UniProtKB/TrEMBL annotation:
Organism listed in the record: Aliiruegeria lutimaris
Lineage: Bacteria, Pseudomonadati, Pseudomonadota, Alphaproteobacteria, Rhodobacterales
InterPro entries linked: Bact_transf
Full protein name: Sugar transferase
Location of the Bacterial sugar transferase domain: 2-49
One BP term from GO: polysaccharide biosynthetic process
GO MF, one annotated term: phosphotransferase activity, for other substituted phosphate groups
Keywords in alphabetical order: Exopolysaccharide synthesis, Transferase
Family: Belongs to the bacterial sugar transferase family.
Length: 81
């Protein structure tokens, strides 16, 4: 559904400091919220990561986990109808 690229939301949100599960959560959040302005933000942040190094973004991890939890609850409720 989404082609791989040179950078991504999980790469600018911690990359090597993240577990595979955390990267998956961030990538699923990205797929649901992707847009051209968001892609431009990721490109800009990639330059920052290249210049200043990786930084684990706990705020983004929490946002993605909360969104995923809500999505699962919604899917469960829709499936039980």
């Amino acid at each position: 559904m989404v082609r791989p690229g040179l950078t991504g939301w999980s790469q600018v949100s911690g990359n090597t400091t993240l577990s595979n599960e955390e990267k998956l959560h961030l990538d699923l959040w990205y797929v649901a919220h992707r847009s051209t302005p968001f892609d431009l933000q990721i490109l800009w942040e990639t330059l920052g990561v290249a210049a200043f190094g990786e930084r684990r973004r706990e705020d983004r991890l929490a946002m993605a986990a909360q969104w995923l939890s809500a999505e699962r609850a919604t899917s469960f409720m829709e499936g039980s109808k």
